[in-house]
Amino acid sequence: MIQKANRTSLVEQIAEQIERLIDQKQWKVNEKIPPEMELIKEFDVSRNTLREAIRSLVHAGLLETKQGSGTFVRSTNALGAALKRRLNKTTMLETLEVRVALEKQAAQMAAERRTGADLAKLDACIRSCKNASANRDLEQFIMSDIQFHKTIVQASGNQLLIDLYEHMTDTVYSFVHDFIVLEPSFLLEQEPHLDLFKAIQNKDKKSAATYVDNDMEVLKGHISKMLED
Amino acid sequence: MIQKANRTSLVEQIAEQIERLIDQKQWKVNEKIPPEMELIKEFDVSRNTLREAIRSLVHAGLLETKQGSGTFVRSTNALGAALKRRLNKTTMLETLEVRVALEKQAAQMAAERRTGADLAKLDACIRSCKNASANRDLEQFIMSDIQFHKTIVQASGNQLLIDLYEHMTDTVYSFVHDFIVLEPSFLLEQEPHLDLFKAIQNKDKKSAATYVDNDMEVLKGHISKMLED
DNA sequence: ATGTACCAATCATCCTACAATTTTACGGAG
DNA sequence: CTCCGTAAAATTGTAGGATGATTGGTACAT
Q: Could you give the dihedral angle defined by the CA atoms of residues A39, A43, A45 and A46, in that order, rounded to the nearest 10 degrees?
């Protein structure tokens, strides 16, 4: 069989191999990878070539290098770093609109597929929210709120959706957090999660989507008002 | 105010500068960027450092290098390449679920914001679809179909949503295309786009979402059946 | 226990050299 | 003059070595 000559550069080949090693957990997250000199021997390439490959993956967010210490695995997929960079050039409202798209779909899927364990987790989040609300504990409230939404998305069972949502949540919430601290009043009183929980429990797709919409409209309104100042 | 020391490596600094040049269209897509030797002088770094920066952006999909020829700008944002890599590890159905999430949201937003120009474009796509259907021209039908969906998303006005959707569409449709050629019967008869168009024209968010759902369910069903073989 | 000096490991940057590939320039054949 | 083949130039790819900077640890003196 005739086959095109191998025109992928050495660097890309090495980068792909390393990506595969990370993806297959042979190099685990937070672990140190072998030093350059060893990898040079193992892959049988020059220092330059190896460094260019590693640097590509550092830029992609898979690895992190510390001079004097070593190179460490930081993530198993490169989507996060790219998304984060993209989100920096995006307004909060645009991000929010995409986020609601993902969460609405997730809620509907969760309503179909949710397990007992999912419901238990969601219930725990709601309790934690209530608890935090009673104690006026902002940090705990925010954490529980995030966890509630993440749990819904995780219950969708779609890993791509989960990945996209998690990274999108990070940046939105770091923003939300900053301004909730300034304006702590509005969050603690309301309790919009219970309806959504019940909809998912009852496998009511339509209601689930509606409640996510409402929830987001509220948040959107607050952020819009906030941005005017 | 205490601030962390500047520990960004030279390579990252150069990569960021280049990214900015591309983002600000000073280096335009498909154009050749200056050769290494010039950039070395401009940025005042060694060849290694420059090459590592460039290689990072090649891996990210922003640039493409051709030995003997030069380095060319290939994209203005790095999300596409990362997404493509991620999608390779994702099943078609999972991708489709995310895609419907985005398109549903887009359709609702389009129903609110669509301009006359948007409607005209959508109308043109529908006509082209009908035309192709009459002529039994599969290629044209598929192209028009893609264009119809893309136009809806573009009418949403959310650039992040557009970016995510476009790349997701590419991979889904390259798959769809392959199997439509084998099974050309089912697509040409139906005309599900008209309802969606009218909903957007009438600014009817709810119906728009419903029609996208239906449309996608049909496609999903076909793909599921196809995957069983 | 604490701080200091030193050492080893490791990555960061720079340099030179050569190979591989593509584009361009040039010179001769028709 | 055009066409074609070859040489030269331009450009990126790969290799290997040298030096600097940062980190983490060790031994020792206080």
A: 0
Pick the closest to residue A35 from A65, A12, A58 (CA basis).
A65
Distance in Å, residue B117 CA to nucleotide D22 C1': 59
Interior/surface letters A97-119, b for 16+ CB within 10 angstroms, e for the rest: bbbbbbbbbbbbbbbeebeeebb
Residue A95 to residue B160, Cβ atoms within 8 A: yes
Contact B55 A58 (CB under 8 A): no
pLDDT > 80? residue A100:
yes
Token pair belonging to A51:
């460094």
Residue A73, pLDDT score: 98
What is the Cα–Cα distance from A153 to A110, expressed in whole angstroms? Answer: 7
Alpha-carbon dihedral sign for residues A103, A106, A108, A113: negative
Question: CA–C1' distance A3–C22 (Å)?
Answer: 22
Chain B interface mutation, best of A86, A93, A95, A172, highest count of B Cβ atoms under 10 Å:
A86
Find how far residue A178's CA is from the centre of its chain: 19
